[in-house]
């Protein structure tokens, strides 16, 4: 148990340098822009006074170290700065945008796990036809780009059947049913490829466990195939499946950038894309910072779950 | 997108034994050669000027004269798809090639010399792998600004650690062979051993990986152009066409369907080629 605790502490401590390095990268975004970032932001018609004013407001006239310290210090106090186009507080903007991205990626991952894991189990233990069917799903799910799938889904459900809206958003608090109706197509689009990955991983992990000698032994003891799969094999395949799910959250967050733009969902991804096109660097920084932080936290949680499922990980032996 | 594949699981790869590696390679390679020829010969085969705006043909349905219909500005969709293949293939293939050119020597050095050379190269490249590909690409473009060259560089950087890692692993396996020690014992220099014995034998898996990654690069490029961060208008790109047609998707689906299909076909081409190559040249399953 003390080893477990040691692992948890070490893993938590590892998160600090990761967040630190990430914050430096995000901090540097605006400083690495070729030429004068302030002039790029304001456009050619900006006066020298305007440029000097914004440069001062962003702290770009100080030394790099001072800039980082005051920027990071403000972040830790929850002061994310202001959007330079709308002058809105970025903390407020983020508070509006984050729930959308959380809902989209959370529901997509939930659906992908609910579809992928059971199908993966069936694919690893079932007969030939189920293996062929699932293989077909894997090939299609992985090769079809998600935005193309989105187009097809919109054409079917919004264009032909007219049972779902093609794009748009209402907050869950205002209209829960309407919110879910808007979410169906984006979630299906994002979840399909994900489900294929999770299916493939589950099938692979379970398949390799099923060929281990202890499974043969359990069979010889006369234990029912159901109990072997769910009581023993899945328990052993669990850590690999959870690891992949954790990594795939990152892929979903990346995919959400495209899907949010495609379905006009006001999430963090769309905020970043609009920010880049408007040269609105402070907003881009905050958006990327938010997505990267979510990803770092999810990796942390994933590693802790894996260590809990498989105590050997904490011993440093791993699976 | 490819990170999942890093779990070293035998059943993790596409497993349909009914198709021989040769047939997969032929189908994949055939699709790609055809698409490449279409892209190269675009000016000769495109029936119309891809940028010619015809007001009276705005959102025209597919017809004999315009088999794929016409878009919001009345431009011929077929001609635009043909030209867009150029940009999309060019960006994704050159990105993967650039990545390959950097990754091969790095992976060779890391796998062959080991110790501090290995840990320096591997740890540095691992930093890139920490973050999801799409987020990295967007961050990169946030700094350098949108454009097809920047998109290609971003894609190349993202795939560098994956390709280098595959090259490192296969170099490690090859370097353990007795003929490498023998060659060294006969007095061959490290460079000579690497060039004549290690590299040629360690090359298979990294080629397989490059082919698989090209499929992802194509999707990434299309995604970036869709967001307006990759290839810029007026140059037609498959992702950019999908963005143009998004607003009129339900009235004029052909504006979206055909560029989308072109992406799907090209992605399948790379995937089939990669799977075929994998079975032929990567029996140990080094590529991810």
UniProtKB/TrEMBL annotation, chain A:
Record-given protein name: Peptide/nickel transport system permease protein
CDD domains per the UniProt record, alphabetical: TM_PBP2 (cd06261)
Family according to the record: Belongs to the binding-protein-dependent transport system permease family.
Membrane topology summary: Multi-pass membrane protein
Keyword flag tRNA processing: no
InterPro entries listed in its UniProt record: BPD_transp_1_N, MetI-like, MetI-like_sf
Gene Ontology cellular-component annotations: plasma membrane
Membrane-spanning segments: 12-33, 104-125, 137-164, 241-265, 286-309
Any GO BP: transmembrane transport
UniProt main location, coarse: membrane
Alphabetically ordered keywords of this record: Cell membrane, Membrane, Transmembrane, Transmembrane helix, Transport
Pfam families cross-referenced by the UniProt entry: BPD_transp_1, BPD_transp_1_N
All copies of domain ABC transmembrane type-1, residue ranges: 98-306
Keyword S-adenosyl-L-methionine attached: no
Record localization: Cell membrane
TrEMBL record, chain B:
One GO process term, biological-process aspect: transmembrane transport
Pfam families xrefs: BPD_transp_1 (PF00528), OppC_N (PF12911)
Keywords: Cell membrane, Membrane, Transmembrane, Transmembrane helix, Transport
Locations listed in the record: Cell membrane
Keyword Transmembrane helix part of the UniProt annotation: yes
InterPro entries: BP-dependent_transpt_permease, MetI-like, MetI-like_sf, OppC_N
Membrane-topology descriptor: Multi-pass membrane protein
Transmembrane segments: 24-46, 89-113, 125-143, 149-167, 254-273
Residue stretches making up the ABC transmembrane type-1 domain: 85-274
Gene Ontology CC annotation, any one: plasma membrane
Statement: the UniProt record of this protein carries the keyword Cell membrane: yes
Coiled-coil intervals: none
Family: Belongs to the binding-protein-dependent transport system permease family.
UniProt name for this protein: Peptide/nickel transport system permease protein
Native source species: Kaistia soli DSM 19436
Taxonomic path: Bacteria, Pseudomonadati, Pseudomonadota, Alphaproteobacteria, Hyphomicrobiales
């Amino acid at each position: 148990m003390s080893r477990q605790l040691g692992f948890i502490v070490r893993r938590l401590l590892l998160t600090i340098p990761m967040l630190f390095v990430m914050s430096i990268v995000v901090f540097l975004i605006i400083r690495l822009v070729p030429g004068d970032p302030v002039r790029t932001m304001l456009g050619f018609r900006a006066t020298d006074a305007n440029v000097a004013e914004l440069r001062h407001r962003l702290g770009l006239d100080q030394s790099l170290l001072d800039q980082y310290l005051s920027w990071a210090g403000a972040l830790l106090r929850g002061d994310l700065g202001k959007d330079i186009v709308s002058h809105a507080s970025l903390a407020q903007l983020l508070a509006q945008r984050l729930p959308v991205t959380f809902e989209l990626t959370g529901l997509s991952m939930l659906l992908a796990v609910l579809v992928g894991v059971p199908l993966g189990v069936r694919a690893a233990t079932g007969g030939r036809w189920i293996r062929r069917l699932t293989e077909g799903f894997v090939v299609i799910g992985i090769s079809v780009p998600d935005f193309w799938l989105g187009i097809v889904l919109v054409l079917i459900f919004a264009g032909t059947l007219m049972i779902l809206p093609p794009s748009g958003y209402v907050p869950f608090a205002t209209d829960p049913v309407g919110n879910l109706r808007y979410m169906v197509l984006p979630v299906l689009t994002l979840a399909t490829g994900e489900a294929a990955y999770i299916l493939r991983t589950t099938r692979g992990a379970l398949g390799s466990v099923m060929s281990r000698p202890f499974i043969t032994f359990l069979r010889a003891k006369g234990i029912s195939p159901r109990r072997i799969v769910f009581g023993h094999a899945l328990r052993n395949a669990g850590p690999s499946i959870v690891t992949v799910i954790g990594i795939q959250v990152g892929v979903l967050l990346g995919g959400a950038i495209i899907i949010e733009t495609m379905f006009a969902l006001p999430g963090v991804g769309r905020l970043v894309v609009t920010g880049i096109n408007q040269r609105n660097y402070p907003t881009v920084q905050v958006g990327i910072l938010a997505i990267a932080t979510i990803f770092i936290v999810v990796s942390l949680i994933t590693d802790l779950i894996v260590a809990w499922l498989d105590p050997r990980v904490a011993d440093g032996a791993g699976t | 997108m490819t990170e999942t594949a890093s779990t070293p699981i035998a059943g993790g790869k596409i497993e349909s034994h009914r198709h021989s590696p040769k047939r997969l390679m032929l189908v994949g390679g055939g699709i790609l050669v055809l698409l490449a020829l279409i892209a190269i010969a675009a000016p000769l085969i495109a029936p119309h000027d891809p940028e010619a705006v015809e007001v009276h043909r705005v959102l025209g349905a597919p017809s004999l004269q315009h088999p794929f219909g016409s878009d919001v500005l009345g431009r011929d969709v077929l001609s635009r798809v043909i030209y867009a293949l150029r940009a999309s293939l060019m960006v994704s293939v050159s990105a993967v090639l650039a990545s390959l050119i950097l990754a091969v020597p790095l992976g060779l050095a890391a796998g062959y010399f080991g110790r501090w050379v290995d840990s320096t190269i591997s740890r540095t490249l691992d930093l890139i792998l920490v973050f999801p590909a799409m987020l990295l690409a967007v961050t990169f473009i946030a700094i350098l600004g949108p454009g097809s060259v920047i998109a290609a560089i971003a894609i190349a950087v993202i795939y560098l650690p994956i390709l280098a890692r595959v090259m490192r692993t296969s170099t490690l396996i090859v370097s353990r062979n007795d003929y490498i020690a023998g060659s060294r014992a006969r007095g061959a220099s490290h460079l000579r051993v690497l060039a004549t014995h290690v590299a040629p034998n360690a090359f298979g898996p990294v080629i397989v990986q490059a082919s698989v990654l090209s499929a992802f690069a194509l999707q990434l490029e299309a995604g970036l152009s869709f967001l307006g961060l990759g290839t810029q208008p007026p140059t037609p790109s498959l992702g950019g066409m999908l963005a143009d047609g998004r607003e009129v998707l339900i009235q004029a689906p052909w504006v979206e369907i055909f560029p989308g299909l072109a992406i799907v076909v090209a992605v399948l081409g790379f995937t089939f080629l990669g799977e075929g190559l994998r079975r032929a040249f990567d029996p140990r399953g080094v590529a991810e």
